[in-house]
Design a protein that fits this description.
By secondary structure, this protein is α/β, with parallel strands linked by helices. It contains 20 helices and eight strands. The protein has a four-stranded mixed sheet with strand order 5-6-7-8, with helices on both faces. The protein has a two-stranded parallel ribbon with strand order 1-4. Strand 6 and strand 7 form a beta hairpin.
Amino acid sequence: MGKPKIRHLPNHRLPHGLPLPHLGAPDKLPLIQYCASPRTMLNHHTRLLRPDLTSCASHAADDAVAEAVAHAVAISPECYHPSHPSFARARLHLPITSTTATSCDGGGAGIPSLHSTRTPAFLASFIDTLPLLTLNPHLAPALSDPTTFAASPSPTLRAVATAFTLITSDPYFHDLSLDPSRSSIYKALTDDPSDPDLPRIPSIARLHTAANQHAQRALTLVSHRRYATQIYSNPNLPQPLRAAMVHAGQTGAGTHLYILGSDPSLRLTDHEYKAAWWYRFPLLPYTGLLLHRTFARGCTSHGPRSPFSARTPPHFLDGSHLLYCGANGTLSRHNRILRTIVKPFYTDQLNYSFTERENRIHSTTHGQIDALARNPFASPTVEAIDVTVICPTAPTYTAPPGASLDANYATSKVERQKRAHHGPACTALAYTFTPAAFTTFGGVGQAWLNSRVLPHFAAARTLARAAGGSGANATIAERRLLSRISLIIARTTAHMLTSTLSDTPLPRSAGAAHTVSTSSTSPFAAIDALSLLTPSHPSPPLLSPPSPPTATTPTISTALVPM
C-alpha cells in the first residue's frame, strides 16, 4: 500500500510503566499510525458497510487522527486543516517513500486515510467472501451473476457494482499489471483483450475468481495513487513546496518516523523528533520558534547584523537557510555521516580498509576527497569516496521546473558536480570515484545506493536463498541501514534548527562527541547534552499560526521557546 510498517530495531519495546499522556512524540506517532492502519477495527467497519454509510464516519475519523497528530507534535490543529497553506493535512495521508523516483506519490507521513480507502476495503471484503456466500442456497441465486449487480434491488449489490466500476475505470488500475505482487489479482478481475496490444478489460463477472489474493492491498494502492495525483496536481500547490514534497519521497527519506526502540542511540528525543517533523512538512513557521532561529549567529551574509528584510523569504522561515548555511555546523553534520554511516558500512559490511582525508587526488590544488576504501580481494581498484549532505529545500533545488518531477533531482545534481570536480583526477590515478550524497530529509543519492548499498544486500539475499533461507535477514538489515541514516540526519537537522544561538557547534566527530560528560553510552548523547532545549522542558501550549512578519515592524524574540 506504499505505507510504512512500524520498524523494530534492537530492544524494540515501549518504555514500561509510562502512561500514554507522558509518552513523547517518537512513541505517540507510531501508535497513531498503527491505529489508523488497515489492521485495526476502523478498517473492519469499512469492509462491512457500504461506502455511502461510512462516508461521514470516515471523515470524522480522519479529522480525529489529524488532531491527534497535531497534539503529538505540539502544533496547532489549524495547521492540519485541509485548507492550510502548508498542505500538512494532505501530506498526512501520502506514503513516506515514492513508488519510483518519478512517480511523485510520496513525501507524506504514511498514515492512511480511512475515507479514501473505504471503497476498496468494501469491494475487497465482498470479493474475499463471495465464494463462501454463494454456498448459501438462499443467497446463491442473487450472487451467481455479478453482471446483474448494477440493477439489483439490493443496495449492497448495487454498491459493489459502483465500487468495481469506480476502481477499475481508474488508469492506475492497469498499473497493477506491472507489479509482480499485484498482477495475479489484476488478471483475476480482467478478461483478455481482442488485440494483444491493448490492456486487459475489467469484468465484474470474474469476481468469483479473485478471492484470497490480497484484493484490499491491490485496490487500495489504486486509491492511494489517485489521491497522490490529486494532491500533486493541485494548482494551489506552490512549485517550491511541490519540489520539496517530491524530494521528501526519496529512498530512505523519513524512514525514521516510525522506529520504536528503547536504545537511546536508535531513537530520537521528543524535541529532536518534533523539530525533524516540523521541517519535513513544513511547519516551522507556525511553531513560535522563529524568527530568531532563521539565521546562524556567525552567518556573514544574513546574520544578526544583516537587514531584517533579508531574512523574510520562505527559505529562511522554513529553516532551509539554517541547514545549508556554512556557519551553522554543516561540516560537523558531514563528518558525522562520514564516520557513523559510510565508514562502518565499508569496514563492517564490505570488509574494506577506510582511510579518511585523502589530499593526493588534487596535488596541484590541494583539494581533498573524504576517504579511500580498499579491499584487494573484492576489487582490484581503490575506491575514492566523497560525502555530501545537501538541503533539498534550498531554492537551488526547488526553483527549477524539473525539481518537482524527480525525487533524485537534488542528489543527482550534486553527484554530477562531484564527478566533474573529482572524476578526472581519480581516473588519472586509476581510482573508482563514488559520490555519496544525502539530503536533510534522510534521502540517499542513487550513485552510492545503486553502486554499493543495494548490490551488497542483494548479494546477501542471493547467498541466503542458495543456502535454503529466505533472505529476510538481508532485507531487514537493508531497511535498518536506511532507517539509521534517516535517524542520524534527523538528529543533526534538529540540532541545527534548534540551537543556532549556541556558541557550541555540533561535535565534529564521534570521538569529539564522547568528550562531553554524559551518563548515556549513546554515540549521539553529546548532541542531547549540547542541545539548548533539553527533554526536561514541558511542551508548550498549542500555538496559533503567527501573522506574517513585516520588514517595517520586526518582532524578533531572543527567548528560547521549548518544544
